[in-house]
Amino acid sequence: MPDKLNTELQALEAQLSNISATEMPEDMITRMENAMINWETHLPREEKIVPFAESVSAPASATTFQKTSSKFNTWGAAAAVALIATTSALFMSGNDPEVTNTNSSVASNSVIEEQPERFSHNITNASNEGITYAGQDQKPYRVFRFEYTKEVESVDENGNTVITQEPAVETILIPIESK
Amino acid sequence: MDEEQKIMTIAKAKNVNSPMTPWREWLNEHGSKLLLFARQQTRSIADAEDVLQDSLVKLAKKEAEGTFDGGQAGWLPYLYTSIRRCAIDLGRKEDRRGKREEKVESDRHIHTGGIMDPWFNSDSADDETRNYLENALKKLPPKYATVITMKIWGEQTFAEIGKNLDISQNTAASRYRYGLEALKKHLASIRQSGDIL
Asked: Is A91 domain-assigned?
């Protein structure tokens, strides 16, 4: 065992001992407690993230993702895939999607006729956010969150091709069958 | 699911009228030191909460299944080890995902004027010193900061620290000393610049 600490280090040790760790907030204690009580339905952090192998962005011309080693139900994954496809179809049909944090590169004084000749979107992140309870009867739903960027090619008044990239987020609830 | 089960499920989900469980009592007593350790092991408060929660749930599962050895006295050592392992795994995954969450933390730091999720309670008289100590601890090499955190705020012995970190007791003690010396040097340099008394 090393020798005892010298006087200066002992003083520093005492100074450190005099400061106390921040208390765990009540709401955090409640979350922890609930997670421990409901350990059977708890999702570990690694299962909340659905990693995409190697590269997080799909090719520009297609929306693709790869099956991961996550452990959530196969039917749930299939349902998520179906919903993504449905959502993509909605976007492709020209319906107005929910868009957040638009980051357009188009000059504000240009008039744009949006005539998408090429439309694609990349999923940049997908995560299984866990379980929530919703609706009047508080049924359980598994929450999936998808972050993606979509590219819209359009032509401005000068005939120049403008490609806009818009980040967006989509949250999908999939009902969980009750036993 | 019958009505009573539905009500209990909702009550659990919303934590309405839940009686205090033994878990809550224990968390009231030990939660702060575990949260501090989780903060020290991870890159953000969100990550800290995740690894802490995952570790607590693992413990709850083991207890429920009757597979945990050591009783309540073994909970803390188990959790320190588990938090550290979860944090290491998370760190590897975070590296692969890039620096996005570090940027989020950095942005929060800017927006909150530098006061972001303090690790320690502040007494207004010693707030500045507390800040310097906290920042110095954060700058320490992780292997030193880990031992210091476990020893001083986790109240672990060198033997327990050694067991949790899979190092010898002597190595734990040496890291503790080197860590304190590094902290002393850092604080001395700040003192020379006149920032703290």
From this structure: yes
A33: closest CA of chain B, how far (Å): 6
Asked if residue A30 has pLDDT above 50, the reply is yes
Which long-range contacts link B153-161 to residues 24+ away (Cβ below 8 Å)? B153/A20, B153/A21, B153/B33, B153/B36, B153/B37, B154/B33, B154/B36, B154/B37, B154/B76, B154/B80, B155/B33, B156/B76, B156/B77, B156/B80, B158/A1, B160/B77
Domain count for chain A: 1
Closest Cβ opposite residue A24 in set B6, B35, B86: B35
Look up the domain containing A120 and give its range: 45-175
If you average pLDDT over each of A121-130, B92-101, B102-111, which comes out highest?
A121-130
What are the sequence ranges of the domains in chain B? 20-117, 124-197
| Low-confidence winner among A16-20, B24-28, B113-117 (lowest mean pLDDT) | B113-117
Interface of A with B in 20-79 (CB under 8 A): 20-24, 28-40, 42, 44-46, 49, 51, 56
Which CATH architecture does the domain made up of B124-197 adopt? Orthogonal Bundle (1.10)
Q: Which two tokens stand for residue A41?
A: 């339905």
Q: Is the ipTM of this complex over 0.85?
A: no
Best interface-test mutation with B: which of A5, A15, A18, A24 has the largest number of B CBs within 10 A? Answer: A24
- CB distance A39 to B60 below 8 Å: yes
Nearest beta carbon to residue A29 from set B28, B152, B187: B28
In a domain, A100, yes or no: yes
pLDDT 10s digits, B53-100:
999 999 999 999 999 998 998 999 999 999 999 999 988 877 766 655
Residue to mutate among A8, A15, A20, A47, with most B CBs inside 10 A, is A20
